[in-house]
Amino acid sequence: MGSKARLSVLGIVLGGLLVSGCSDKGGPDSAEQTMQHDHGAHQQMAANGDLQETTGGKEQLPTFLQPANDTVRTAYMAAAGVKEVLSQIPCYCGCGESAGHKSNLNCFIKEVNPDGSVVW
Q1: Do 77 and 68 meet the contact criterion of CB atoms below 8 Å apart?
Q2: What is the mean pLDDT of residues 53-80?
Q3: pTM across the whole model
Q4: CA 31, 43, 77, 72: dihedral to nearest 10 degrees?
Q5: Other Cβ atoms closer than 10 A to 23
Q6: Sequence spans of domains, the chain
Q7: Coil, helix or strand at residue 106
Q8: Tell me, what's the pLDDT at 24?
Q9: d(CA 71, CA 76)
Q10: What dihedral do alpha carbons 82, 94, 27, 46 form, nearest 10°?
C-alpha cells in the first residue's frame, strides 16, 4: 500500500474514531459492573462499558454495527486493515483511562485471537 493510500486509510480510521470508536455506549450502572453476555450474538458488555463481540475474522463486522452508517462501518474495516499503525497511536480521547485502552486500536478492536477471530 502506497504512502498516500495509507494516509487516506488512516484518515478514514481516525475520522471514524471521532464519530464512534470511543463513544459513551450507555454502559451498565455500577450495580451491573459484571460481564453481561448475549449468547446468541456472542456479545458482551465489559465492566468498563465497552460493547464487545467476537467474529470469525476481520472481514466479518460485529452485529452491533448493523444500525451504524456506512462511514462508521468503513472505519472499523479500515482499522482492521491497519492494526499495526493504530497500535502505535496512543488513545487520546479519554477512553484510555476510562476503558483501559492501550492504543487507538483498542477503540475498535480488543484483540485478534490466534485462530484469526476478532474481538471488536
Answers
A1: no
A2: 96
A3: 0.62
A4: -50
A5: 14
A6: 36-119
A7: helix
A8: 46
A9: 9
A10: 60
